[in-house]
Amino acid sequence: MAKPNILVVDSDEGFGMMLKEGLENSGHYFSVCVHTGSDAIQAIVENSYELAIIDMALTDMSPAALIQAMRKAKDGMRVMIIPLIGQSVPQSIEALSINGVLTKPFFVGDLPDLIDEAIGRKRESRPVAPVRPEKSDSPKDEVVEPSARENEIDEVVPEATPELPPPLAVASVSSDTLRYLRANETEILRLLGDLNREVRAEAILLIAGLELIAHAGMLGRDQCQQLTMLVAQSAQAAAQAAGFLGEPAGHFGQSLHEGEAYRLYSLSLGEGIFLSLALSSNVPLGMIRHQCRQIADQLSKFII
Length: 304
Fold this sequence. Notes:
It is a single chain. By secondary structure, the protein is an alpha/beta fold. It folds into two domains: 115 residues, Rossmann fold (3-Layer(aba) Sandwich); 128 residues, Beta-Lactamase. Strand 1, helix 1 and strand 2 form a beta-alpha-beta unit. Helix 2 packs parallel to helix 3 and helix 8 runs antiparallel to helix 10. The protein is elongated, with a radius of gyration of 26 Å.
């Protein structure tokens, strides 16, 4: 079966390209990204697309006008809408019989199901391998009596809290910077909240030295405090490695620890100051970096 061709229309070049890459990296689609409504209309006229994904934040023309122009150029053109963050699709757009909605943030792993539904394509389900029963060494007719221990109620032993590693010498942050960061905690929390709406993280931390300035996400304050210590020590160890390797800046500007289910990403905002995220590995790394840099630019005014 030929791969469907998808047109992404988004005035945010960074996000548009990340969505394009997410579609292509899934292995199910071809994709083209344009950043204006006029370029989208030209693309529809010149090429064949099974679906157009249009961001509501398009700047050069209204999404409603673009949808109507697209369908005039190609009858029955299927359209998926990306609504503004925290908002639903406007009634004026719903009245145009759109074929799907892609809300921010989203997981790349969800794209194939959402796209295929929008273009009306059924995906073949994978066959489930039969489960083979385990072989038993006991004869068929032998009745195995439970032991006395198996009849007892197991004692519940609370899990031990893992011990943190011994601290390293962490880069110091000036007292003036710390005071200024604390004084602007409300505004910093708002920025971290904006970032969390984009990436849906387990935890987002703004760290200065060993101090947790502000946090957002699903983890509680105590858990974020523990994670702060680990991130700060890891950053210092990475700085020592950078010095050993002769890194010109004397430290790494960003770091990434990646597992099967989660990523821990940190971006340096200054000496001893980090923006760190713990989040699902389904979120594209390019999206993480792009969104973090945008928030970092706004946080930089609080670092003196």
